[in-house]
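Input set for joint prediction.
Command: fold jointly, output tokens.
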Amino acid sequence: MKKLGGIAILFLGGILFYTSFDFPHWGDGKSPASQHVSPYYIEHAIEDTSVPNIVTAVLADYRGYDTLFETAVIFSAGLACFFLLRVPKRKAPTVRFYRHLPTGVTLRIEKGGRLPEKTREFERIDSVWVPYDLIIAMTCRLVVPFIQLFALYVIAHGHHSPGGGFQGGVIFGAAIILFAISNNLRRSLKRMSERTSALFGSLGVMIYAGTGIFCMLMGASFLNYSSLASFFGVDRITARSLGILIVEIGVGIAVTAVMVWIYYNLSSAGKQDEGL
Amino acid sequence: MESIGAIIIAKYNYWGVIVLLLVGLYAMVAKKNLVKKIIGMNIFQTAIILFYVSIGAKKGATIPIILHGPGDSSHAVHAAEYINPLPHVLMLTAIVVSVATLGVALALALKIYSQYGTLEENEISDKIMESEPG
Amino acid sequence: MIWQLDIIVLSMVMICGIAAISIKDLLGAGILFGAYSFMMCLLWSIMGAVDVAFTEASVGAGVSTVFFVAAVFRTTRRTKD
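tokens >
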């Protein structure tokens, strides 16, 4: 099977190699890809939208329809993971592990035993027993706010530097995942529960679609941001820049929530009681 | 007909893409483990993204962020000084879709493991055959 | 665009890609996939695609590697091929 696959793939490689002689040279300025639409985008991006980052302008304004459905695809991937893996909680596990923090002693409580009182000295740990690591928990607790601040900067500064909604959203989600890895999954679930992340995911998509419908209510076509000019009291070009910013915020919220949601479902195989 | 050396220098990026495509496709077809197949799928996707991005490059041009000083908004912009931004936009969508597909594929692999106890494809098909009646 | 750097990073990408599918330990395969993603990000920033490189650095070398390690943790780590 491997040899047959290898031969077929080498044959395909030969065909692709033969057709690569017809492609344009690398770095050619006169290739067909650079001729028709993209000179218009490069030359008119600032005078139409006043956004210097051409990629953000094309992504959220000229080709905003694609980005709306891409956000819907991300949300439906999170939804698919949820429906595949999630096991609703039936009963509490019978054997529990507790750690006494001042002395470091681990207690294992069998079925029917008496649980310790809920003071700050007893901490519940996972059944896949990990040693208590103060350095990792404290370091990640110090680093997480700065990562979130950087993520918000990337979203807000996407007009002038590389960045935008997706990148900032993924970095924000990665900060929350870092908190869930270094501390318990249960602690992270207490702060950002699964229901919150699902709601934020759909909220992000609705902000994007809602902006489009709002533009339609103000008189122009769907996702034509220049009709927001009368609502905000600015001229038409700045209104397009503001429309891009609102849409990027919606995308960032949706991507954050879906990354955290997929991580919760993958790392606990649906049960959401213990993670990595 | 140009010399062989000139052809190699002009087109070597396409050959790098072809090698990566073949590596990814081989992993999807000939490997038996499900996680290796998923890794092969991701290698294939990033090789396609590399192909599109390398089409957009231009000799002697700069990154697609328009240079402007403070308060100066009236000098003309020439399209030959900036590289083509349109493939970058399409590939941003492709990268995010690939991570969404990765999440769903890993969820499927977890479900298969919890049902059959193994991730190798030949063992899974053996277990399916012997549990079918007749 | 400096072609010497381009050739070096392209060969590193191919080595990481071939190693990621041949190694027999699935955790090592996930980590090598993260390294492959990072090398791709460098290649795209050499070609001038800074937005795409930023996205790949955060998504591929960040969140994607975490998903792989989480999935390997919940299933098995050894493989026979």
